Automatic annotation (TrEMBL):
Name of this protein: DUF1572 family protein
InterPro entries in alphabetical order: DinB/YfiT-like, DUF1572
Gene3D superfamilies linked to this entry: dinb family like domain
Length: 173
């Protein structure tokens, strides 16, 4: 089960890196841009993820994952935060999540925690977060790609570069 915890941390760190690189590539006005139809801006998504992570992972094993002082609806209100504030929120949420998950032991995985008064095994609570985070990080990356267009630098293998990537990784076999 330690293998699972190590894997979860590795996956979370990869989403952290993708989101960080996306935020760093944009200026404050771009971070607050919203596509038509009023979907969330990157700034709102960061505020929401921060609120979610702080609520879920503060006192993770001992208190409900939906803290009384969380105001989820406010996370989706525009506040024109600076890029520095957006990055601070991003790092604060992730710091809480990574420290909490990093402190878990294999014996913890079968313990019961509560999220909105619903019982979850610790393993399930991690999996729940593992589906929530990439959903929103993917939205952030997609918005960043929309904004930067052809100036976007791929966070993985660029289009049309799979063969070259594979050749580099696997050689000429």
């Amino acid at each position: 089960m330690q293998l699972y915890l190590d894997s979860a941390l590795q996956r979370f760190r990869s989403y952290y890196d993708m989101g960080t690189k996306t935020i760093e590539r944009l200026d404050a006005s771009q971070l607050h841009w919203q596509p038509q139809g009023e979907p969330n801006s990157i700034a709102m998504l960061v505020k929401h993820l921060r609120g979610n992570m702080l609520s879920r992972w503060t006192d993770f094993l001992t208190s409900d994952g939906e803290k009384r002082d969380r105001h989820r609806d406010e996370e989706f209100e525009e506040d024109q935060a600076s890029k520095e504030t957006i990055l601070q929120r991003w790092h604060e949420g992730w710091d809480c999540l990574l420290k909490a998950v990093g402190s878990l032991t294999p014996d913890d995985l079968e313990k019961t925690v509560y999220i909105r008064a619903e019982a979850h095994s610790v393993l399930d609570a991690i999996n729940r977060q593992m589906t929530h985070v990439p959903y929103h990080v993917g939205q952030m990356v997609y918005i960043g790609k929309m904004i930067l267009g052809e100036n976007w630098q791929s966070l993985s293998i660029p289009k049309g570069q799979s063969e070259a990537f594979n050749k580099e990784k696997f050689g000429n076999k």
